Amino acid sequence: MSGDRSPLYAGASNKLLLAAMSDAEIENYLANGSFRAFTENTIVDRASLWDEVASIRRQGYAESNSEKFLGGASLAAPIYNAERHIIAALSVSIPIERFDDAHKQRCLARIIEAAHSISSELGYRL
Q1: The pLDDT of residue 2
Q2: Degrees to nearest 5, angle at CA 107 with 105 and 113
């Protein structure tokens, strides 16, 4: 059985991992990749993707609203190792109908807390 491949430009966890890459690595990815829209919300424009990367880096988390699947939203928080590198993302998927601001904030608080806990277990210290 083989896994499913997913591009770095669509979905909260994927975009978070993209934002964790160096600018040079992102430029290389953008130069060598092709972009296809999974939905009308998929980011397929390079300038918009750079804006999204900047936003994720500033916020410290990523979010997706029907970028990969219609009707699906997701949030992702980074997991760090002892060397302070992002090595994974912890995410939650939510039906778009329940993705109001109050639910988003509750979910976000919990995944950030869980991601910090996992990071601490891996030796990460603030």
Answers
A1: 60
A2: 100
